[in-house]
Predict the 3D structure of the following.
Amino acid sequence: MRKQGLRSRAVVAVLTAALVGVAGCDAVGGDSAAPTQKAKPSPKPTPAWDSSPASLAAVGDSITRGFDACGVLTDCPDVSWATGSSAQVDSLAVRLLGKAKAAERSWNYAVSGSRMADLSAQMSQAASRAPALVTVMVGANDACRDSTAAMTSVSDFRAGFEDALSVLRAKAPKAQVYVASVPNLKRLWSQGRTNPLGKQVWKLGVCPSMLADADALDAAATERRDTVQDRVEEYNAVLKQVCAKDAHCRYDGGAVYDYRFGTDQLSHWDWFHPSVNGQARLAEIAYRKVTAVT
């Protein structure tokens, strides 16, 4: 019995020492020697996109001015996809603001014939209104030149768009921007060339880099049109990339470029610019993109 008692006391002593050791580790914090990790700061939330802006300003070229939609070689802003008042179009401004407010709270600073180099001046005008949303559709005239050599370079196109956004941000830092892609000019050629009248109007100088010698299908003509088309796609890549760097900018994802304009959507005066029906389709695309939840 004595030896068993001694063994029992020895076991108790060993267990006690072990427990004291564990308690000792806990007392000094266990792994307290390991460096304490600092909590990572929460990332700043991305500004929420307002799908119901209270005002709208439009910048761009002849498409936004409704050129050749109502009459030959003339602007028709009433049917503009962005700010027009025509019930046939149901413009973006009317869809977002209602007809009464659209008349008071939307402005069209687009100018027919404008290229990217002209956008900064238009942006300055738009910014002076402190709009909640600015729509941008520009680039077709940068590709529609007398020759492919005269087209705006991709680097100049990029610099022009970046400058235009910086002008806007200086005066209206929180304004949202909807950027429409440049239309597929080669598809417009393929549709419009089926109309003899349209081809006669094209000879007056409508987008000669793409539309000159409309029926020519030789290697040189094909290469010329492909060169224009490649440049349009490069412009759209620039619009997407530059817009992505601005927290308040939304690119249409190529929706206008991808839209398959048919003869009903083309002006029956020049068979190149959007008709009233075409303007309505552009308004639908813009409204869908501006109000989309992402």
About this structure: Residues 1-35 have pLDDT under 50 and may be disordered.
